């Protein structure tokens, strides 16, 4: 009986699979075994392929449902976070909003803000050396992630052919992962470090821009909002221009690299996956625009909440004294629904977009799995190729999903950067630098037909055609009813504001022509409610001038502050607390007077600097001020008769106008506003000269004052 040539060829091929260590079989046994192998070997191979495909199906199914569950959890967490925010009653206070929750100008027109994204990226330019190294690490990390799926497929094919090939492929895959992990470590470290350096520099620049602004700027912007820009918004920008940009680049390169490998593996399968890319890309662009606007509004609401909290906490003693806790809470909570609506819109947008993308990607993966399985069944590709392709598909899917989240965070940073750049670009109306610097201060101060309205209160004119002259070396007292404009005059002299019309001169030189920083160093001011910083007494006294301890101590002695300072355990190193809360009112005022006297100014501006002192301390401080007056110009806002009587001139300001001007005796004789103020003080036994609704009194005022 002749052998079938085809069967003989198959038997010969099968014989190569027999172990060389096995004992030779009989010819009949060999023929029987070969016949068995001939009929069963193809079936066994198909069974192995089917088992591998079932295993891959299980992995893909788990990944699919994991992505769906992850999307749902992300949506739920977004809703829960804004529900919690509503419970915490975060709200907005300051910004003008229309019915559409858009910030508007005073005339009701929406404020249009925009920012160049490239400018946001340019913030990191000084750190380009570090960023370049981080970018190289990013390339290496992404390359490892992109090539790993290819070797996964090779492992599957190697497992069916040769153990040596399997070992070699697994070792290469392990090295790829180790290299990727090391590169990822460098990438994360370098990008984070660059971000920290960038945000530190940005905060310094932003703080410098803020403190260089004119006082009117601070009248119109709340402290809490500005501090929120410094802290919260800069942190958001840091994450955007370093971490988020690196993640964006990573995911984009991961998508591109994966698609390239997918084309190499099988172009038709890649075409199936690419069918959904335009849909996802278009949705991502529209989503980014929408989320950018919402996140910007949300950041504004957070800034307002921070401002409100800062204001109430810093004035907690006033809140407590008036039992106004509920009122403060109501103020903090009254606009929470508007803030919640913004958060709700953001949560719905994020959840809907993420969920929709997840469903689209899952459908694409399922389609790829079906079509790839068909190609394996038809022997167009191997099981290893399908494995690699499916892993690349998962790479692309997860990169798209995370890309949308990172893109949303980046758009949040774009929104936050708008206000940051507004502050950085804002030019102060009154520059602190530039102008004339006089060799000496010759001549006095002159107000010539000055009119002024605070920018924050444009409908209320504070000074109306005020003119007066203060000779050099004179002590001039400003008196008048509260709200008449006395403190405004002091503010204008310090050039915190410029008059709307008229002029203020030092000698013959308009203050607008002088260098503001230089001019302010020639004067010193003490307000009625002095502000101290949360540092030691020594640091507070030497705040305006670098001085040794002896100079600080001498200034304290002149202000009658030395004795009470020495009574403290830490003496001049005693911390005064925030805004000087650990000191009494009189102690704070004496420290402020010492700070003013240490500068040795040419001009002294005093807002009744002795009003919080007891009689003995007032006398001692007044003596120190009298000594400091030599060859200096002193302007004091006075509320006490004892202060007014020592003045060379008394200027009465009432309802924004110059009511009277002259010496104390001259004004008493005129029977005008000043006389009414004096009578009120004498008859009521009060110490403040503030009222203007008095009637004439037949008593001789000079006699009363002499008593």
TrEMBL record:
GO molecular function: ABC-type oligopeptide transporter activity; ATP binding; ATP hydrolysis activity
GO cellular component: mitochondrial inner membrane
Pfam families attached to this UniProt entry: ABC_membrane (PF00664), ABC_tran (PF00005)
Keywords in alphabetical order: ATP-binding, Membrane, Nucleotide-binding, Transmembrane, Transmembrane helix, Transport
Major localisation: mitochondrion
Listed transmembrane segments: 52-85, 129-152, 172-194, 248-265, 271-291, 347-371, 383-403
Domain annotation ABC transmembrane type-1: ranges: 133-412
Identification of the protein by name: Uncharacterized protein
UniProt lineage: Eukaryota, Metazoa, Spiralia, Lophotrochozoa, Annelida
């Amino acid at each position: 009986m002749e052998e079938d040539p085809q069967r003989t060829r198959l038997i010969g091929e099968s014989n190569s699979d027999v172990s060389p260590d096995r004992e030779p079989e009989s010819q009949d046994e060999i023929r029987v075994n070969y016949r068995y192998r001939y009929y069963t070997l193809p079936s066994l191979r198909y069974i192995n392929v089917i088992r591998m495909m079932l295993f891959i199906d299980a992995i893909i199914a788990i990944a699919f449902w994991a992505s769906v569950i992850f999307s749902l959890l992300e949506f739920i967490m977004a809703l829960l976070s804004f529900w919690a925010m509503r419970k915490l009653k975060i709200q907005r206070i300051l910004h003008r909003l229309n019915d559409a929750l858009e910030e508007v100008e005073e005339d009701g027109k929406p404020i249009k803000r925009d920012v160049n994204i490239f400018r946001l990226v340019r913030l990191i330019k000084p750190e380009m050396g570090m960023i370049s190294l981080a970018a190289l690490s990013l390339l290496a990390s992404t390359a490892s992630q992109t090539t790993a799926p290819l070797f996964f497929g090779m492992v599957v094919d190697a497992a069916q052919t040769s153990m040596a090939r399997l070992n070699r492929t697994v070792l290469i895959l392990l090295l790829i992962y180790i290299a990727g992990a090391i590169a990822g470590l460098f990438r994360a470290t370098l990008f984070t470090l660059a971000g920290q350096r960038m945000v530190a520099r940005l905060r310094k620049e932003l703080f410098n821009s803020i403190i260089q602004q004119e006082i009117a700027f601070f009248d119109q912007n709340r402290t809490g909002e500005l501090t929120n820009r410094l802290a919260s918004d800069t942190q958001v920008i840091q994450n955007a221009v370093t971490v988020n940009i690196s993640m964006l680049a990573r995911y984009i390169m991961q998508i591109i690299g994966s698609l390239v490998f997918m084309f190499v593996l099988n172009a038709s399968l890649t075409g199936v996956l690419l069918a959904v890319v335009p849909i996802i890309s278009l949705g991502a662009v529209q989503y980014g625009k929408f989320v950018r606007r919402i996140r910007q509004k949300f950041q504004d609401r957070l800034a307002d909440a921070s401002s409100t909290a800062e204001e109430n906490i810093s004035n907690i003693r006033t809140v407590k004294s008036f039992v106004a806790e509920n009122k403060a809470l109501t103020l903090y909570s009254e606009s929470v629904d508007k803030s919640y609506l913004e958060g709700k819109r953001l949560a719905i947008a994020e959840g809907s977009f993420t969920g929709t993308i997840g469903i689209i990607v899952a459908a694409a993966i399922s389609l790829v799995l079906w079509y790839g399985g068909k190609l394996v069944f038809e022997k167009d590709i191997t099981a290893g190729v399908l494995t690699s392709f499916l892993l690349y598909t998962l790479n692309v899917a997860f990169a798209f999903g995370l890309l949308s989240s990172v893109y949303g965070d980046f758009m949040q940073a774009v929104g936050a950067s708008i206000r940051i750049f507004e502050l950085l670009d804002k030019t102060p109306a009154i520059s602190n630098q530039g102008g004339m610097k006089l060799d000496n201060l010759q001549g006095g101060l002159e107000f010539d037909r000055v009119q002024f309205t605070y920018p924050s209160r444009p409908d209320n004119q504070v000074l109306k055609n005020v003119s007066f002259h203060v000779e050099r070396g004179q002590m001039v007292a400003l008196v008048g009813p509260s709200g008449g404009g006395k403190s405004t005059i002091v503010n204008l002299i310090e050039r915190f504001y410029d008059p709307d019309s008229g002029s203020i001169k030092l000698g013959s030189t308009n203050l607008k022509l002088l260098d503001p920083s230089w001019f302010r160093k020639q004067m010193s001011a003490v307000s009625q409610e002095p502000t101290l910083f949360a540092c030691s007494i020594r640091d507070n006294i030497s705040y305006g001038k670098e001085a040794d301890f002896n100079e600080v101590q001498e200034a304290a002695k002149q202000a009658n502050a030395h004795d009470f300072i020495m009574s403290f355990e830490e003496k001049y190193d005693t911390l005064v607390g925030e805004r000087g809360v650990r000191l009494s009112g009189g102690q704070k005022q004496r420290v402020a007077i010492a700070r003013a006297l240490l500068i040795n100014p040419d001009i002294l501006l005093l807002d009744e600097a002795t009003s919080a002192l007891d009689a003995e301390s007032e006398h001692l401080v007044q003596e120190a001020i009298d000594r400091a007056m030599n060859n200096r110009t002193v302007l004091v806002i006075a509320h006490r008769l004892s202060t007014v009587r020592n003045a060379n001139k008394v200027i009465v300001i009432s309802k924004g106008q110059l009511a009277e001007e002259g010496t104390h005796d001259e004004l008493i004789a005129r029977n005008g506003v000043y006389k009414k103020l004096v009578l009120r003080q004498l008859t009521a036994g009060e110490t403040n000269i503030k009222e203007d609704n008095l009637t004439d009194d037949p008593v001789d005022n000079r006699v009363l004052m002499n008593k």
